[in-house]
Structures are given as structure tokens and as C-alpha cells.
UniProtKB/TrEMBL annotation:
This is DUF3566 domain-containing protein. It comes from Methanolobus tindarius DSM 2278. It comes from the Archaea. Keywords: Membrane, Transmembrane, Transmembrane helix. The chain crosses the membrane at residues 17-36, 48-67, 73-92.
């Protein structure tokens, strides 16, 4: 087993990974919000059901996009900060076979 150090992370690479992970979390959260709004809307009658449907569809479309963009930006910032910090204190130590 050899020990290696990760001294630099690809900024765009980490941004894409964070964007995908956050987008999947946004999709899950959007699905939960859709179900909740449909259930609550159905309790309020026809007008409430329509409002719940519109809010639910909006959630399942906008939340994955919003979370994905947020993840992309936070991944880029994280990689930039990591690359600066490793210049001062060294890289992350990992063990590989």
C-alpha cells in the first residue's frame, strides 16, 4: 500500500461533481415537496388541489436546477480554497492499493 498526497483538485471537476450531487438532492426534495403539496392541496378542495399541483410541479422542476447550480458554485469555491490551503500545509493524505 502506498501513501499519496492530493495536492490539487480540478476546480471545474469538483464543481461538476457537487452540481450533480446537489441536483440529485434537489430532485429528491422536489419530489417530497410535490407529494406534500398535492396531499395538502387535496384537503383544501378543487382550488387547493390545483394550487398544490402547480406548486408541486414547480418544485420538482426548479429545486433540482437551483440546487445543481448552487452545488456547482460551492464545488468551485471549495476546490479553489482547497488548492490555496494545500500550498501552505500540504495535501490530503490517502492510502491506495
Amino acid at each position: 500500500m502506498a501513501i499519496h498526497h492530493v495536492n490539487k483538485i480540478g476546480v471545474i471537476s469538483l464543481g461538476k461533481i457537487f452540481g450533480a450531487v446537489y441536483g440529485i438532492m434537489g430532485l429528491i426534495l422536489g419530489a417530497i415537496m410535490t407529494l406534500m403539496s398535492l396531499m395538502m392541496g387535496s384537503l383544501m378542495g378543487n382550488e387547493g388541489a390545483f394550487a398544490g399541483l402547480m406548486f408541486g410541479v414547480g418544485s420538482i422542476i426548479t429545486l433540482p436546477i437551483f440546487y445543481g447550480v448552487l452545488g456547482l458554485i460551492s464545488g468551485i469555491i471549495t476546490a479553489l480554497i482547497y488548492n490555496v490551503v494545500t500550498g501552505f500545509i500540504g495535501g490530503l493524505e490517502i492510502e491506495v492499493d
